[in-house]
Amino acid sequence: MFKTRLLSGILLMVIALVTLIVGGELLFAVLFLISLIGMTELYRVFGIEKKAPGIVGYIFAVLYYGLIYFEPQLEGEKITWFMLLFMAYLICQMAVLVFAYPRYNTQQIFAAFFGLFYVAVMLSYIYQTRLLPGGIFTVWLVFVSSWGCDTCAYCVGMLIGKHKMAPVLSPKKSVEGGIGGILGAALIGVLYALAINHWGNAGANVFTYALIGAVGGVISQIGDLAASAIKRYHNIKDYGKLIPGHGGILDRFDSVIFTAPIIYYLAVLL
Fold it and tell me: Is 174 helix (H, G, I), strand (E, B) or coil?
């Protein structure tokens, strides 16, 4: 099991390296595919992956990514187009509820609406971060703060963890581990800034990268626990089996989903 998980992890890192370095249409295509798979995993929990609410969700995910792709051409009208898309999505999902009544319950409709934002919209910020000036460096903070925090939290929790963070939801997570993960993510942010300044002449502000790492670490833990809460509530172990040893897309990207938009806006603001 450990060997399988390790090999899968290495393969994921290779894919991440290639897609994030190349960026552009390759990164866009990979994230689009991951988003559709992640939405399918979430929709499967509610039994709508092949039904009308789920199908409407997939259609609007395609439309959303289309807007993201052509966003540079929208200029000052982009907010209008995105708001129009989301309003139309809400109306279409409610139309499914009305005209198919009582085939689908409100929980399924709300889950379908939520799935587009939770998976497709949130993950798209990896691509949007890569498009920022200096994005080839900044985009890695999404993974530095999430996966780095996760690793540091696990190590610190194993060594000195005593106080349970969420005893019912995730008994193995500790307060000490959570704090260690945040500090670890900040430290990794500092080391990363020093590395890209030395070898890439990035001109990154070390304090800013430490702050982004720490904030990203906090958010990533919320994302991890949120994904666990959905699984616990519906009594499932993993969202899928796509990644051997890790589960599904949502099992591996649960923290990244929350971290990506936060890193994007922190990078823009700071």
Answer: strand
User: What is the C-alpha to C-alpha distance for residues 190 and 59, in angstroms, rounded to an integer?
Assistant: 41
Contact, 184 vs 156, CB < 8 A? Answer: yes
DSSP 169: T
CA distance linking residue 219 with residue 178, whole number of Å = 11
Question: What are the tens digits of pLDDT across the range 87-140?
Answer: 999 999 999 999 999 999 999 999 999 999 999 999 999 999 999 998 999 999
Nearest to 82 by CA among 54, 63, 56: 63
List, as one string, the DSSP characters of 8-51: HHHHHHHHHHHHHHH-HHHHHHHHHHHHHHHHHHHHHHTT-TTS
Give me 160's structure tokens: 């000195």
Closest CA to 115 of 233, 250, 243, 247: 250
β-pair partners for 243: 247
- Give the residue from 210, 241, 264, 270 showing the smallest Cα distance to 5: 241
**Helix 24-45 vs helix 106-115: crossing angle, to nearest 10:** 160
- Tokens read off for 267: 């990078």
What letter represents residue 120's amino acid? A
